[in-house]
Amino acid sequence: MSGFTEKEIIYIVMVGTSITLLLAVFLVSFVYLHQRRRFAFLREKQQIENQFQEELLKTRLEIQEETFRTISQEIHDNIGQTLSFIKLNLNTINPVLPQREEEKWRESKELLTKVIQELRNLSRSLNTDFIQEIGLVSAVKQQLDLLERSGVYQIALKVSGDKWSLSAGRELVLYRVVQELLNNIVKHAEAHTIQVSMDFEPHRMTVAVSDDGKGFEVDNVAASQSAGLGLRNIINRISLIGGIISINSTVGVGTRIVIQFTQSIDE
Length: 267
Prior knowledge:
By secondary structure, this protein is α+β, with helices and mostly antiparallel strands. It has two domains: 1-128; 136-267, Heat Shock Protein 90 (2-Layer Sandwich). Helix content is 66%, strand content 15%. It contains seven helices and five strands; from the N terminus they run H-H-H-H-E-H-E-E-H-H-E-E. Helix 1 runs antiparallel to helix 2 (98-125) and helix 4 packs parallel to helix 5. The longest helix has 86 residues, at 6-91.
C-alpha cells in the first residue's frame, strides 16, 4: 500500500464502497421486484381459483334449477301419462275373461317397469355428482334422449376414440355449457336435426354441437346486450376451464359450435 497516497486510498475506498452499495441496492431491488411479482402471481392465481369456484357453484345451481324444470316436465309429459294409461288399463280389465285381458296385464307390467326406470333416472339426475358417476358422455346422452322423446328433433350422437375424463369441476362446467347450447337450439334455432360429436384423442377432447336451424350472424349476436351476453358467458366459461371454443353459423343453414380441451397432467 506504500505506493498509494492517502488521497488515492480514500478514493479507492469511496469507489469500493459505492460499488458495494450499488450492488446491495441492486440485490435488494431485485429481491423486492421478484417478491412483488411472486405475490402478484399468487394473487392472480388465487383470483382465478376463486372465480373458478364461484363459476362451479353457479353451474351446480343452474344444473339443479334445470333439473327441477326437467323433472316437472318429465313427470307431466311421461310419467303422469304412463301412470294414467296403466290406471285405464287396470280399470278396463274384465276378470271374467282372463285370457283376453292377459295382454293388458303384460302391457301394464311393462309400463310400470318403464316408470320405475324413469324415476330412477330422475332421482339420479338430482345430484350434480351424477356427471362424475355416469360419465360426461352418458350425461350428454341423457339430455339428447329427452329431446328425442319430444318427437320434434332428429338426434345423432357420435362418440369416437378412447374416452378419458377432465377433472370433475371442468366436466361439470362443460356439461352445463352443452346443456345451454341445446337449450338455445330449442328456444331459438327452429331446427329439425341436432348432432353432437365427442372425439377423444390421446391428449385432446373435441365436443361439437350442430343444428340445421335458421342460424345467425355471429358478430351481430355477440354485440347485442341480451343474446350476446349469453354467448359471452359461454365463451368465458370455456376459457375459465382451459378450453377453446369456435362458433360458426350461417343464416338459413345452421350453427356448429366446437369446444376443445387439451388433457392436462393431473387428469
